[in-house]
Amino acid sequence: MSRHPDVKWAERADITVVLPDSKNAKVNLEPEGVFTFSAIVGADNKHYELKLDLHDKVNVEVR
Q: Main role (predicted)?
C-alpha cells in the first residue's frame, strides 16, 4: 500500500513535494497535464505515490 506525501500546489509554474529523506524518487510531467511522483522513505522503505491531474495541458520543454 502506498502513502501520499505533502504537496504544495497552486495555479502557477511550480509544484512542491515535501518528503524529506526520500530515495529513488521518480517525477514525471506529461504534456496532457498529469504530474506523477513516487519515492521510498525511511528504514522500513515505505512507498509514497502522488498523481495530480492538472487543469490544462502544460509545456514540458526544459528552458
A: Acts as a co-chaperone for HSP90.
Eight-class DSSP state of 3: B
For residues 18 and 9, give the distance between their C-alpha atoms in angstroms, rounded to a whole number: 11
45: left (phi over 0), alpha (psi -120 to 50) or beta: left
pTM: 0.76
41, 21 contact by CB (below 8 A): yes
Chain centroid offset of residue 38 CA: 7
pLDDT for 5 equals 78
Q: Taking the domains of the chain in order of start, what are their residue ranges?
A: 6-53
Look at the block and give the residue holding cell 521518480.
26
